[in-house]
């Protein structure tokens, strides 16, 4: 086999990337037109919403592709069919196909970023594997995001939009929502998550109207949880005359908004596709045992270790709400670390409001963008007057924390912050190193 294809780093706003990607897809005979696309965009909740929709479609016996980012664990996790990662050989074959295309005179001297190449590779793979539907998660933004190069979509789904990637996507909710709203395709169905900020909802609504897209708000889908245990809860829902209940395994309180969005999509989908199905049974089968990597995911039971990729203000706020709601009676030790280009100061202030908590501070595994543990320590001290311990890397922080709490029955370990913090810790635990090291 040839040496691995190489693609460059970050080219998000370097010229007309969408035109280039459309040309690449055209050269490949437009593989993105071989299936129906459900395009998921937003600031928080994209990954969970995408995973839930893909699981529901799988239960309906469709062949379902899913493209998500950032990948958790191995890079092959970002491209899946019916929950199975793309093989390294299939991924490599797709990337080599792209590399040959980029050597054509038509593209001479132009390069694709790593993310753009992964996106195109997913389109090639899904076409070759003859999937029925693709759940396509936006990367950074909307209008200029690589995923917006697709020709057409069946649905545009907007999860909660907040302030993230400020300076790249915009400086206000309205500016960020404007960028994201551009994924709406003419005449598609556009679904908006509940409790969307009014400025964001107005922007999406106007864009949908301008594209003759059918707008549906999940605000009218009422959802409540009961019989809550550490493993699951009963979800009851109502939208208009339709009501039901089902078992649901995702733990973050923020998942209630996401599941309302998924129910809203599903009720529209089965109507449009004329599918006669027991909605309660379908949702239970699809969501009772679903696990979304890195989203309030329990990795170890003793001591209890939970990881959550809360890396911006809205996500941290939801994380704090979940921790206080579900683990108020425990002492919490939180391992955390942020990228320096995030709004980490406000995130730290929110984290310090958790009841009965202490912190272990480290630096995410991203040398160029990571905030140093010492800088984070100073920020925590500003709010708490405490010098929390610092560690040179995430694994050192995990090992020390586990040793510290292993005999404390009422203590849990939470890992929250950048995915560059979660990934090494999650991999360390998942590959068995954690058990061997204990």
TrEMBL record:
SUPFAM superfamilies referenced in this protein's UniProt entry, alphabetically: MurD-like peptide ligases, catalytic domain, MurD-like peptide ligases, peptide-binding domain
One Pfam family per UniProt: Mur_ligase_C
Segments passing through the bilayer: none
Keywords assigned: ATP-binding, Ligase, Magnesium, Metal-binding, Nucleotide-binding
Reaction catalysis annotation: (6S)-5,6,7,8-tetrahydrofolyl-(gamma-L-Glu)(n) + L-glutamate + ATP = (6S)-5,6,7,8-tetrahydrofolyl-(gamma-L-Glu)(n+1) + ADP + phosphate + H(+)
GO CC, one annotated term: cytoplasm
Domain Mur ligase C-terminal, residue spans: 294-419
EC class (word): ligase
Gene Ontology molecular function, alphabetical: ATP binding; dihydrofolate synthase activity; metal ion binding; tetrahydrofolylpolyglutamate synthase activity
Family: Belongs to the folylpolyglutamate synthase family.
NCBIfam families reported for this sequence: folC
Record's protein name: tetrahydrofolate synthase
Organism, scientific name: Lentilactobacillus kefiri (Lactobacillus kefiri)
Lineage: Bacteria, Bacillati, Bacillota, Bacilli, Lactobacillales
Gene name, Swiss-Prot/TrEMBL: folC2
């Amino acid at each position: 086999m040839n040496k691995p294809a190489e693609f460059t780093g970050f080219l998000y706003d370097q010229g007309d990337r969408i035109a280039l990607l459309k040309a690449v897809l055209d050269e490949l005979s437009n593989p993105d037109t071989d299936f129906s696309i459900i395009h998921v965009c937003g600031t928080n909740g994209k990954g969970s919403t995408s995973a839930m929709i893909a699981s529901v479609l799988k239960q309906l016996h469709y062949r379902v592709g899913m493209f998500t980012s950032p990948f958790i664990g191995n890079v092959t996790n970002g491209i899946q069919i019916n929950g199975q990662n793309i093989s390294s050989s299939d991924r490599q074959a797709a990337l080599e196909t792209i590399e040959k295309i980029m050597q054509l005179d038509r593209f001479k001297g132009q390069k694709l970023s790593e993310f753009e190449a992964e996106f195109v590779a997913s389109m090639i793979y899904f076409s070759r594997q003859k999937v029925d539907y693709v759940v396509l998660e936006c990367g950074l933004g909307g209008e200029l995001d690589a995923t917006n190069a697709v020709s057409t979509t069946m649905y545009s789904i907007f999860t909660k939009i907040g302030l993230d990637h400020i300076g790249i996507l915009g400086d206000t909710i309205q500016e960020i929502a404007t960028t994201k709203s551009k994924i709406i395709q003419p005449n598609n169905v556009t679904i908006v998550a509940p409790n969307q900020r009014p400025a964001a909802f107005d922007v999406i609504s106007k864009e949908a109207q301008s594209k003759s897209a059918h707008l549906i708000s999940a605000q009218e889908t009422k959802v409540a949880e009961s019989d809550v245990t550490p493993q699951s809860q009963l979800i009851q829902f109502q939208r208009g005359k339709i009501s039901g209940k089902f078992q649901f395994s995702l733990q973050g309180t923020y998942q209630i908004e996401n599941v309302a969005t998924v129910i809203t999509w599903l009720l529209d989908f089965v109507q449009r596709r004329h599918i006669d199905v027991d909605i309660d049974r379908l949702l239970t089968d699809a969501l009772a045992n679903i696990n979304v990597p890195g989203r309030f995911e329990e990795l170890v039971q003793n001591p209890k270790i939970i990881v959550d990729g809360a890396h911006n203000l809205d996500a941290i706020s939801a994380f704090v709400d979940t921790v206080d709601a579900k683990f108020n009676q425990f002492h919490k030790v939180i391992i955390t670390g942020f990228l320096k280009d995030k709004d980490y100061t406000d995130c730290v202030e929110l984290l310090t409001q958790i009841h009965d908590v202490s912190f272990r501070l480290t630096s995410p595994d991203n040398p160029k963008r990571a905030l140093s543990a010492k800088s984070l320590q100073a920020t925590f001290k500003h709010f708490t007057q405490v010098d929390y311990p610092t560690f040179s890397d995430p694994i050192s922080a995990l090992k020390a924390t586990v040793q510290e709490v292993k005999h404390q029955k009422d203590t849990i370990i939470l890992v929250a912050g950048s995915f560059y913090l979660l990934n090494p810790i999650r991999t360390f635990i998942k590959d068995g190193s954690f058990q061997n090291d204990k």
